[in-house]
Amino acid sequence: MDAQRVNGERVTLRDVAKVAGVATSTVSRVLSNPGRISPRTSEAVLKAARDLGYDSARRREVLTAGQSRSVALLVPDIGNPFYFDIIHGMQEQLKAAGYIQVLVDTEESAEVEESTLESMMSTSQGVILAASRLSTNALKRAAERIPLVALNRNDGGAPAVLIDATIGIHQAFQHLVSLDHRRIAFISGPEKSLSSQWRWQAFVDAAREHGVEAIRLGPYAPKQTSGAAAADAMLTSRATACIAFNDLLAIGMLRRFRVRGVRVPADVSIIGFDDIFGADFCQPPLTTITAPIERAARVATSMLLNRLDPGSSDARKMVRLPTYLTVRESTGMVAAR
């Protein structure tokens, strides 16, 4: 039998479990938690993994040798303040559990993310993927090979923590409609971002509920530097208000409007998303949809640690955390035209 292949397909945890005569969860625990399963069962699993050429057997040997007790956090842009609270929340929890955090910037690239994950297979016990850019199939393959939890992904069969934009976006529409806005734009994020797709769907639903016109602009990179193009597009669209994919885009738009002499909120209203550090320091302070970022990181870390603990009874596959609107000074009544 070829290493890493069963009937021409890549070997998975299920293949190892079938050969060893145990549950898939038992295989995962043996490969990620040396010494926590009975010697007889562990040996059966490890023999099956070796015979099948499953590469987590090599990972287990590395971890058993004490060369690593780490968990990897993969983020698409380490410079984005959104990830600061994720890094902090995860690191504190891992430290308390006796793990170290390995932080990797995947540069908004699915290819970099996939190659990084491949290298993590032999050096880390688990992975948390924040705003993953992987395809569904690539995420599924990774979840079969190493314990992982995804932040803001609910596909590929991986355990997930989702920041649910629905409530926050509906509150944002209630706020804007009360200020007499009737043509509202969504400044969309990266084309392959599931978060951007979900937020647009919630946007459309809220617009329909309130009887206002919804416009989609973009996609834009989730950076301040993309805000100028987004601001110009919004003025062309004649929307009087917008909800941006994230605060960085919104802050970039504020700067562009100031350069062009467009008054916020007298001429246009802007709402960001995430409530990152510094959103309230803008001129004007940014109205935004607040996301429970650090809480999401802590929940994701708990879910991963529970997967790494064979004695845990926590089998949560998905947790949704709500958002809410924080009103500041970047939204106001529609100017008379």
TrEMBL record:
Pfam families (UniProt xref): LacI (PF00356), Peripla_BP_3 (PF13377)
A GO term, aspect molecular function: transcription cis-regulatory region binding
Keyword presence, Transmembrane helix: no
InterPro entries to which the protein is assigned, alphabetical: HTH_LacI, LacI/GalR-like_sensor, Lambda_DNA-bd_dom_sf, Peripla_BP_I
Keywords: DNA-binding, Transcription, Transcription regulation
Domain of life assignment: Bacteria
HTH lacI-type domain boundaries: 11-65
Record-given protein name: LacI family transcriptional regulator
